[in-house]
Amino acid sequence: MLHFLLRAVFAAFGLAIASRLVPGVTYDAPTTLFLAALLLGVVNALLRPLLVILTLPITVLSFGLFLLVINAAMILLVSRIIPGFHVSGFVPGLLVAIITGLTSWAGTLLLGDLKRLNNRSS
Q1: Alpha-carbon distances, residue 37 vs 53, 65, 71 (angstroms)
Q2: Predicted structure pTM score
Q3: Is the pLDDT of residue 47 over 70?
């Protein structure tokens, strides 16, 4: 559970960065941003695997780039569900997906490094 919450913090950080860099992405309050990150984690855990399987042929033909479209769709879905978190369209959603993906990747690396350091000290 702690790992999921830490990943949500990194996702929220990515969403905050995206709101600064991408026109058309706004949020009302930091709590809204964290709720959006939590819901994004849940949506990615439940809905994304099904979409990946259903779109596997086009993903293969696009050399995996279609996964960015799926990620953008997940972010747009979250923006429709969470009041106070707004993404104005597909292109901003795609850019948010890239930024959030990079920050989540960096967070995963950091969490992995912290886990390894913790295991060494035990």
Answers
A1: 23, 23, 13
A2: 0.86
A3: yes
